[in-house]
Design brief:
By secondary structure, the protein is an alpha/beta fold. The chain is built from 17 helices and twelve strands. It is globular and about 60 Å long. The protein starts with a helix and ends in a 10-residue tail after the last helix. The structure holds (~{Z})-2-methylbut-2-enedioic acid. (~{Z})-2-methylbut-2-enedioic acid binds near residues 156 and 258.
Length: about 375
């Protein structure tokens, strides 16, 4: 066993097993949002949401992984579609006093951490993320306490409490340069929670890291064999892979990158067909930027390969027009972050944003 393998087996024990029923609960909640509309219902909901956004002085900020109709509505109403960091930044710069965050819980929390004076509402605050669930703050703090000589770097997909325990927060778009910078400062790195992104960063930078063993339920399902088989049908297709995917999937990629990086690649590459290994909500922006191009979902393994909806994040799918209208009507589902935690979590978040500001090429501004 090499050092990395030893670290992995040691840390695996701390990671709670993700209960299948949590995924099933999310799928059931998502079904209420995606169930067919009654005649005229969709149009009525959209009209109501538009007028309520004005009434509540609210702006809709949606993640790339939400449904096309939510992304379109965000854009039509002067809101924004982006990755988690840009969603929070946009919320900060926009004059609206209420931010409606269509995404998952950590995105609402990040928006609140950066915008404490604003009201942050979510269509369903129970929408979470397997990476967040698999990194509970108590177990994670213990892991950090056992390695006080390590700089703690956490991915954005974590709770406010875990961020508050970290030295740095990173997104997938900025993880590599930050870890390289830390290694240049002779710092040892403890990484959480995504083991695949962690291994990718470790391999790309050559920096040995202690890695928490969490994973994303969606990205983990993609298979290299599935992609290779699809490539036989589409030999000219470029393979775009998000680094939350397993190493063997990353190996067959033409481009590995964050959501924004993958959208940019699909726009700029002189290729007509793409096999995309990330949540298919991203196709909305890819198709918008390149209407003539063909985007194919990367296949997943096992029985999931027969399930059309299996690449959809069940928690992202909990955001819909129905609960968006409700939250605007009732002004509930507000996201609060305890002030002490917020202040502590702001420090590593701010560190990342300051780092990005000094390197303009890393700054991602505006819709991709
Ligand atoms: O930070 C985000 O929005 C996520 C979840 C992924 C990415 O690559 O942007």
């Amino acid at each position: 066993m090499n050092t990395t393998e030893m670290n992995e087996s040691k840390n695996q024990a701390r990671v709670p097993v993700l209960a299948e029923e949590l995924v099933e609960q999310a799928q059931a909640a998502a079904l209420k949002q995606t169930a067919d509309y009654a005649p005229g219902e969709r149009e009525e909901l959209i009209a109501r949401i538009k007028s309520l956004l004005l009434k509540q002085d609210a702006v809709l900020v949606a993640h790339y992984y939400t449904s096309p109709e939510l992304q379109q509505l965000a854009e039509e109403t002067g809101g924004f579609v982006a990755d988690s960091l840009e969603m929070a930044r946009f919320g900060n710069e926009h004059p609206a006093t209420t931010l409606i965050v269509a995404g998952v819980r950590f995105m609402g929390e990040t928006a609140k951490i950066l915008n404490p004076e604003k009201r942050v509402l979510m269509p369903d605050p129970a929408a979470t993320c397997s990476l967040d669930l698999e990194c509970p703050v108590d177990a994670f703090s213990q892991f950090c306490d056992e390695h006080p000589d390590h700089t703690v770097v956490v991915y954005a997909n974590t709770s406010a409490e875990v961020k508050a325990r970290a030295d740095w927060v990173v997104t997938s778009g900025i993880a590599l340069p930050i870890v390289e910078y830390l290694a240049g400062q002779k710092q040892r790195v403890l990484w959480a929670p995504d083991k695949h992104l962690g291994s990718y960063v470790q391999k790309s930078t050559g920096v040995e890291m202690l890695i928490w063993q969490g994973s994303c339920v969606i990205h983990e399902r993609f298979t290299a064999d599935g992609i290779k088989n699809l490539k036989l049908k589409y030999p000219g297709a470029a393979v775009l892979v998000h680094p939350e995917s397993p190493a063997e999937v990353i190996e067959v990629a033409d481009v590995v990158g964050s959501t924004t990086a993958l959208i940019n690649a699909s726009k700029t590459m002189d290729v007509q067909e793409f096999i995309v290994a990330t949540e298919p909500g991203i196709f909305y922006k890819m198709k918008q930027a390149s209407p003539g191009k063909i985007f194919l979902e990367a296949p997943t393994g096992g029985i999931s390969a027969t399930c059309e909806s299996c690449m959809r994040c069940p928690w992202m799918a909990m955001n819909g027009l129905r609960n968006l209208a409700e939250v605007l009507e009732n002004v509930n589902n507000e996201i609060f972050v305890e002030e002490d935690i917020r202040r502590k979590a702001l420090i590593p978040l701010q560190r990342m944003m300051d780092f990005a500001k000094k390197r303009p090429s890393l700054k991602v501004k505006g819709n991709a």
